Amino acid sequence: MTTLLVKNTAVLATMDNERREIPNGGLFIRDNIIEQVGPTEELPPTADTVLDLTDHVVLPGLVNTHHHLYQSLTRVLAQDSNLFDWLTTLYPIWANLTDEAIYVSTLTGLAELALAGCTTSSDHLYIFPNDCTLDSQIRAAQEIGVRFHAARGSMSLGESQGGLPPDRVTEDEDFILRDSRRLIETYHDNGRHAMIRVFLAPCSPFSVTPDLMRESAEMARAYGVRLHTHLAETL
Predict the structure, then answer these.
(1) Which of 23, 112, 193, 205 is 20 to 30 A (C-alpha) from 149?
(2) Do 161 and 199 belong together in one domain?
(3) Are residues 79 and 165 in the same domain?
(4) Nearest by Cα to 130 from 88, 162, 165, 102
(5) Can you give the residue range of the structural domain that contains 185?
(6) Per residue in 146-189, pLDDT tens?
(7) Pairing label, strands 196-202, 33-39
(8) 87 and 174 inside one domain
């Protein structure tokens, strides 16, 4: 067992139902689980690691509910475009993504979020060209140490079928569903203190078929995981 004591904060903001703000507050953590929050004098006197945060404000970690971490690699491009022009400009670039690029962009993006106070993040990865996998995102999140909700996104409706993305960045729907099942069964943790969870996220109504949207919803319901998509983005 490892323990951590945070003590002597100027203010500890709990964000609980009573919105308590505790002067000279602190918290005691055992094996990454908060056991006690309160005035410093009411906490255990020591721990394996002790942080004296005199003159600091402590508050719960921020939660990021939607992100595309791979886009950190192209964030300076097509900035003045509307949504569809932006997508059609960048799809050909994203078609060259590799699994290493997914891993590195996830490390970079999650590190930036952690430095800004975010301790829980989701990510909606919906493009899997070349050898890209969601596994590499999960590995990067485990290395950074944040709580991570990984979306197995999907695009199956390419330009030749009336969709927006180029055909070469779409996937076969049977493969999408098989891989979704594999990822849930391999990584999803439904426990209270889970660090990794998986959810399903067909990209949008204009990039997947109605059948895939329905089958993804059915699978999510069967496994008890969340379902996520883009909707009404330009309103």
Answers:
(1) 205
(2) yes
(3) yes
(4) 102
(5) 63-227
(6) 999 999 999 999 999 988 899 999 999 999 999 999 999 999 99
(7) unpaired
(8) yes
